[in-house]
Amino acid sequence: MPSTEQAADRATGQQEPSKSRWAAVAAVTLGTFLLVTAEQIPIGLLTAVGSALSVSEGTAGLMVTVPSLVAAVAAPLVPVLVGALDRRLLLLALMGLMTVANVASALAPSFAVLVASRVLVGVAVGGFWAVASGLAVRLVAPANVPRATAVIFGGVGAANVFGVPLGTLLGEFSGWRIAFATLSALALVTLFALLAVLPSLAASQPVRPRLLAEQFRNPGVRVGILATFLIVTGHFSAYTFVSPALQKLSGIDEGLVGPLLFGFGLAGMVGNFVAGAALARNPFRTVLTITVSLAVAMPLFLLLGRGPFAGALLLIAWGLAFGGVSVGLQTVMIRVAPEAVEAASSLWVAVFNLSIGLGALVGGVIVDSLSLGAVLWLGGACALVAALAIWTARTNESLR
């Protein structure tokens, strides 16, 4: 049975880190925080951008759709294109690209130029996340890998809880161009932080198309990819419409939706770190528990969340469960593909991003053609099928 230490060694092709580089972990976390904030901040700026550049809000939504789709393509493609390039240099280059992209967004004279700049954001998001998601094995001692992975993914939760709302407020008070310019300045700060503390990260095994294809012959990777597709698609098919669900199903006033979503995000951050601690003890049981909790939480919201208090409570429980998804599934990918962490992680990031867009699309079709409650049943059903898929992997020793 492969130990965590052996997994780390094979993932890097080198000896395990002589010491844990928590400053580097913190810098990478800052990077994930910035990237997710940059990817999602247009959600709160659609009206302002549409008005300024004479496009509809629906068209302005391309600022969110385009980088998500580009990130899904860039996640496996960037590691292939850069070959054996030192991953430190790659991360620095991608953060530099993010800096330039947001300058271009802030100065865009037309919507076409703005969308083009968002393509660059998608490349930076996909490439950076593909490398950063499996970086913990390169930066900390093996015993600390789950905790470091949780810290890195804590940047994603922090972006949803703090980054996007604060960026939206900045855009409302100072203008959407100032919001993008501020992102560019923060990207530059992150670039210098990475330059200061990130060690050399030689690519011991360059990612080639053949190596990506080989991952699908690994049963553990197949289960991880399938579970990711089901969980993320199901979650976003329901969560995209959580605001009308809170108002129409739970009778919650519109003015309380924002604070409750903030609570959802905080619960997600707690779930991320709780899962990180539990994964160090038993990865299989932890991921299965997270998935079953989601399978229960979404339909339960529909069945028992018919009052404001119950609806708010179940929303927090939902957030707590979903908060552990990213760190849990990424840990699975690290453990089932210890000799090809970057290749497996890049596929995982691609599927994750595609599933976000697909979930929102499918959810919209279902809400329009069936009902609001149907997306909650779909979310629960997807999570249940994912739990069954994960259960089939219970004999995989690398998950123990």
UniProtKB/TrEMBL annotation:
The chain crosses the membrane at residues 21-38, 58-82, 89-113, 119-141, 148-166, 178-202, 223-241, 261-280, 287-304, 310-334, 346-366, 372-393. Residues 24-398 form the Major facilitator superfamily (MFS) profile domain. InterPro entries: MFS, MFS_dom, MFS_Efflux_Transporters, MFS_trans_sf. It holds the Pfam family MFS_1. It is a multi-pass membrane protein. One of its GO terms (molecular function) is transmembrane transporter activity. GO terms for cellular component: plasma membrane. Its main location: membrane. It is found in: Cell membrane. Keywords: Cell membrane, Membrane, Transmembrane, Transmembrane helix. It comes from the Bacteria. This is MFS transporter.
